[in-house]
Amino acid sequence: MTNFLHESLNANSWNFSSEIENKFESYLDLLQKWNRVYNLTAIRNYDDMVQLHILDSLSINPYLRGKRIIDIGTGAGLPGIPLAIINPEKEFVLLDSNSKKTRFLIQVVHELKLQNVQIIHSRCEDYHPEKCFDTIVTRAFASLKEMLVITKHLICTQGQFLAMKGVYPEPELKDIPDDFIVLGVHALRIKGLDADRCVVCLVRGQVLTVDK
Predict the structure, then answer these.
(1) CA 28 – CA 56 distance, rounded (Å)
(2) Is 211 within the bounds of a domain?
(3) What is the pTM of this model?
(4) How many of the other CB atoms lie within 10 Å of CB of 114?
(5) 164-185, pLDDT tens digit by residue?
(6) Cβ distance 54 to 28 under 8 Å?
(7) How many CA atoms lie within 13 A of 180 on its CB side?
(8) Is 212 inside any structural domain?
(9) CA distance 103 to 81
(10) Domain at 28, CATH number
(11) pLDDT per residue as tens digits for the range 61-94
(12) N or C: which end of the chain has fewer CB within 10 A?
């Protein structure tokens, strides 16, 4: 593993085993390799990938609820892959309509031996699993209103939506449907990264408690 990855994790109070850090490293190596051909992400510098991909993804971990989590529009596996690496007890579904990206993710799951990750190549509207999800996560996916409308068929009764955003999305918050409730908008602070980041936590209907 690189010193930069290790030091960046520690600076943000993430103290993982060498096995987990090695999986982060392997994921980034695969991402750089595939990115040369498939253009999976515009971020190509390794240090930037550590901060903008790994650390940014991990920053929402405290807000996850329940066992079944779906990452909608996961792209290159963000935030789903980093979160799945540190939460082996949870089940993650990573969904994307881009076949190149899902092929990459299938390879990641295989090489990192991630037993708790399922890759789905589909549009969100066309995906109808047998089981609902406790948490729906999106990162740079769509407006809050659009995200809620096209993903609500996937959420459990007591489930929550987590939308990762940049600056505080005040106009989007004013436009959410009446049957959704904002539980909070939390700043995501990453040491070493000078960027505005936040996560919007929402539920549908009355506020209910979800066990971790």
Answers:
(1) 14
(2) no
(3) 0.93
(4) 22
(5) 999 999 999 999 999 999 999 9
(6) yes
(7) 25
(8) no
(9) 14
(10) 3.40.50.150
(11) 999 999 999 999 999 999 999 999 999 999 999 9
(12) C
